[in-house]
């Protein structure tokens, strides 16, 4: 962080205008492949934060009254514009995250899918009616927006995760204040520009920037009704505890330690391919990455084949079509993963493939880390206990499916898991007994499509209602129940009927 006025500052987006901040503190945004500074982002002042929230509150008074079909048509327009700019968004996203182009396109596309679901908002906001709950009395429920909602998003999915949040909230009739990660603010700003092009009214979306101080201000502000967050466990706990202490509705998605169980009868060719892709894809920087392979019985014999496959995988810059993934987000992130790899070796795990010394030609300053594979790991090792968030796969051996289920259920996290097997009975037992919110059967990364919800459990999620799908609509709305009675004798008829002319 520096205290000088930046040359190329990222603006704030307040009340429908792009405004240069008067902040005294600025954060450098770097390209992870080179660590060159590509922009600077402000730590917004309290006056700027207040202006964004006040604008959102004022606009809400009008936006909540906009007919639901009109809000749905805005999302229809937005999803088409996002598709038209798919490649452009992916290129911008790659520049600030280091993701390869295919991965960046996937990031954008998964966000577009949620916007498509937001276009279905009318059917998702339908209430319920019961006629004659008592004599001549009917009851019905109405689904109504809450007000100003807030989203705090991470570095690893700068398109997808903001699009998890503000389209659903705004389609439901709310207004939204977005605080994107200070490491990757550029994609969020472009999403806002395209939202404007789609016809979004002034002020329904506001974007502010900064770090912990700005987040804490948002968490405490009495006008903000909901907080949506995705990030690390310590921050998620802070967000949830602080937000709920301030009487807000909070959904905080935290860390993960996702296991893939491999049964002896599984198609081992498929297993190897999927383990490699799901562990090192996006440099392992995704909360649904498979970071632990639980090898049951003779499945442990795939280690040599897995080692050979991982040795062939190479990272590289976003424009290298042969690169499997890009760099880590920052030097600090790389150093943390290197320390965990070293701990793994010291604690007795076998390092089958070591990517610690990885280099990429032409990019000497990038945050590169090669694929790393451990076998013989145990539950008391740091490489098992901590979310590594790097291209590292840890293999553990057990004798039975029951042992595998117990191992996973004893882990504090519950984001995602999968099983590879040819046995339907084993798959059913696994999906029934496992205490994890998202389960794949011969699917390595079981992220639900947007007409479901992203349902992490236990230490991977703090809150009650999850992201996107029907649960998101419930998160961003409140239910009002009306009980109505009308009297037959009040019905006008005949010559006594009064006609009102306007």
TrEMBL record:
Record EC number: 1.2.1.27
Aldehyde dehydrogenase domain location: 21-482
Keywords: NAD, Oxidoreductase
GO molecular function: methylmalonate-semialdehyde dehydrogenase (acylating, NAD) activity
GO biological process, one term: thymine catabolic process
Cell membrane listed as a keyword: no
Broad enzyme group: oxidoreductase
Highest rank taxon of the organism: Bacteria
Pfam families: Aldedh
NCBIfam families: MMSDH
Family membership: Belongs to the aldehyde dehydrogenase family.
The protein's name in its UniProt record: methylmalonate-semialdehyde dehydrogenase (CoA acylating)
Protein source organism: Photobacterium lutimaris
Upper taxonomic lineage: Bacteria, Pseudomonadati, Pseudomonadota, Gammaproteobacteria, Vibrionales
């Amino acid at each position: 962080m520096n205290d000088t006025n930046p040359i190329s500052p990222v603006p704030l987006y307040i009340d429908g205008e792009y405004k240069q901040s008067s902040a005294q503190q600025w954060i450098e945004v770097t390209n992870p492949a080179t660590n060159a500074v590509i922009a600077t982002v402000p730590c917004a002042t309290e006056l700027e934060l207040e202006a964004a929230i006040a604008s959102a509150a004022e606009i809400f008074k009008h936006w909540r009254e906009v007919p639901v079909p009109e809000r749905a048509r805005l999302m229809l327009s937005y999803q088409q514009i996002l598709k038209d700019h798919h490649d452009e968004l992916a290129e911008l996203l790659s520049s600030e995250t280091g993701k390869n182009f295919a991965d960046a396109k996937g990031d954008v596309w998964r966000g577009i899918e949620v916007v498509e679901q937001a276009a279905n908002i009318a059917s998702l906001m339908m209430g319920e009616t019961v006629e004659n709950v008592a004599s001549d009395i009917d009851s019905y429920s109405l689904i109504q927006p809450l007000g100003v909602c807030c989203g705090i998003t991470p570095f690893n999915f700068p398109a997808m995760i903001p699009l998890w949040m503000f389209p659903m909230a705004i389609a439901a009739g709310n207004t939204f204040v977005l605080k994107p990660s200070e490491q990757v603010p550029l994609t969020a700003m472009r999403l806002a520009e395209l939202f404007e092009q789609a016809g979004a009214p002034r002020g329904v979306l506001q974007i502010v920037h900064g770090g912990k101080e700005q987040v804490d201000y948002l968490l405490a502000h009495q006008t903000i009704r909901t907080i949506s967050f995705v990030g690390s466990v310590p921050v998620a706990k802070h967000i949830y505890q602080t937000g709920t202490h301030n009487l807000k509705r909070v959904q905080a998605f935290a860390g993960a330690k996702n296991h893939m169980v491999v049964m002896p009868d599984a198609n081992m060719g498929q297993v190897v391919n999927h383990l490699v892709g799901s562990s090192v894809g996006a440099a392992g920087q995704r909360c649904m990455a498979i970071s632990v392979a639980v090898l049951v019985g003779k499945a442990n014999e795939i280690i040599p084949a897995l080692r050979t496959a991982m040795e062939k995988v190479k990272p590289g810059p976003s424009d290298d079509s042969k690169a499997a993934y890009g760099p880590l987000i920052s030097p600090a992130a790389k150093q943390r993963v290197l320390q965990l790899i070293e701990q793994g070796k010291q604690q007795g795990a076998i390092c089958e493939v070591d990517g610690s010394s990885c280099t990429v030609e032409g990019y000497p300053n990038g945050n590169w880390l090669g694929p790393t594979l451990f076998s013989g790991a145990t539950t008391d090792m740091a490489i098992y206990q901590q979310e590594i968030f790097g291209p590292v796969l840890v293999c553990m051996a057990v004798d039975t499916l029951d042992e595998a289920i117990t191992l996973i259920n004893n882990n504090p996290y519950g984001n995602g898991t999968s099983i590879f097997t040819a046995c339907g009975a084993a798959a059913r037992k696994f999906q029934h007994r496992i205490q994890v919110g998202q389960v794949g059967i011969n699917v390595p990364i079981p992220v639900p499509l947007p007409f479901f919800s992203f349902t992490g459990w236990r230490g991977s999620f703090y809150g009650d209602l999850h992201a996107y799908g029907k649960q998101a609509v419930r998160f961003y709305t409140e239910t009002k129940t009306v009980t109505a009675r009308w009297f037959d004798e009040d019905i006008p008829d005949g010559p006594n009927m009064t006609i009102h002319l306007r």
